[in-house]
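Report of the visiting student (M.T.), summer placement. My assignment was to run the structure pipeline on a short list of targets and document each run. The first record concerns Transposase.
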Amino acid sequence: MNRYDKVFKEEAVRLSDEIGSKKAAEQLGVAYYTLQEWRKRRTLHGDGAHIGSGRAYASADKTAREIELEREIGELRRANEILKDALGFFAKDRKR
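After the run finished, the structure tokens were exported:
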């Protein structure tokens, strides 16, 4: 699976606007449907469309710090779940 950076995606979408999606995909060596997905994301999310793989899209009113804090909250929630499971495991072991 190829991963493309934000600048490449933005330039590819811009080129597809100028010469068409099929020609741009051929010239860049990108699958047509991949380029179409990038175009769709740009339409839906505007400037925050191409921020990277696996990350939520930033809305216009969120700062980078807010996005980072939301990510950190998610990590902490997952860590708490792991700790709860471990506590339950060891509590069962002490009862015996």
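The chain has a mean pLDDT of 82. Residues 44 and 84 are 38 Å apart (CA to CA). I thank the supervising group for their guidance throughout the placement.
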